[in-house]
Amino acid sequence: MTRILKPAKTLLTASLCLTALAACSSAAPTSVPKAYLQGTALDRNPIGVEKSTEFLEIAIHPEASELSLTDKASISSFVAAYRDHGHGPLIMSLPASSSNPQLAVAAVAEARAIAYERGVQYSEISGTNHGAGSDVAEPMILAFQSYKAVAPECRSLAEVDFSDVTSNNEMPTLGCAVRSNMAAMIADPADLLGNRPLEKGDPLRRAVILEKFRQGETTASKRTSDESGTVSQAISN
């Protein structure tokens, strides 16, 4: 029978190594925050949505017979903003207390005409009145609801010690800058609430693309020479 003798010095060295490893494992942080197990870094930096009301006041001049060009331009710009990011009806409120009631009525009619020219249907306009019993002349008021994206508050990177490698956990700032950039780029923050319904697809176009795919043909739209990105050769060297 063969016997293998291990030197006592080797056993002592192995024992010391195991002791050192045990000490290292007990000193290193092993806890993982519960938040890390719930979603991603982006989920922990959500984009908020705030609802607000945008107003436009048009003063009714007591001696004028029609709105000024400046007032008409202001109404046109306000309607364009409504078309861009407005939600709900475009409210036009007639002042019940006015020093020029005839112009007040004409101003509302002019605002409706401007809105229609800018693509707002009459069904999207809601008429109302305000200032009943007021002692002062009230302006005409236009209003609509809008939404604003609120970016998360990101900690300054100067507060983060990137040299600290005692933990393998993600940095507390991870994902915050991405969410801030997204909040600045979102065209309509109301989409984050899921309020806008999806438009119906085009079944005929889908059938054309599917048939081209089956035939091995390109599914990209054809471009004309006017749409080409080729550099012009009109000027030769």
Automatic annotation (TrEMBL):
Bias kind Polar residues: ranges: 216-237
Pfam (any one): Pilus_CpaD
InterPro entries on file: Pilus_biogenesis_CpaD-related (IPR019027)
Keywords attached to this entry: Signal
Residue numbers spanned by region Disordered: 215-237
UniProt signal peptide: 1-22
Name assigned to this protein: Pilus assembly protein CpaD
